[in-house]
Amino acid sequence: MSNPLPFPWHRVVAVLLLGAVAGCSAGPPRAPALAASITTYLGDAQTFRRGDELSFFVSLGEPARVVILYQDAAGQLIQLLPNRLDPVGELPAGEYMAFPRALDEFTLRVDAPFGAERVWLFASTGGLPELEGEEAGDLKRVTLDLEGVRGRVREYVAGGGGRFGEASVSITTRP
Questions:
Q1: C or N terminus of the chain, fewer CB within 10 Å?
Q2: What number is the average pLDDT over the span 46-59?
């Protein structure tokens, strides 16, 4: 009878060590996410018709600067906050807050184009970048696409510290 081969413990230990090292991050620890949510006054995934007035409810886990973007069915991004009347876009923490607010002096009404639309909320305790765009009344038509906005916001937040949260709500609009 031949001698059985010894169990290769050194290989098992090496694999375990490599796995542990691969799971470590060389950078500083990341701050926990900022609690942020957004919904419509009727709840999530609702359908609205031409002429309906839209309002949203925003909730934050702590005071933060926010960017609220409306993405219409054609993919166009409209920055709702900050806006001309509130250029900072800072909201308090707590219960759901209605948006637009009375101080915003504008309403949101459903109009063409119709289809799947989405409202995005980006929030940070460390500030957010100004997004490029052109004035559209009290609001701004953002020139970046959504992925460009997300990349720019995340890059800015990563360099400025603070906690970050992101949320969105989908709606459908019809004639």
A1: N
A2: 96
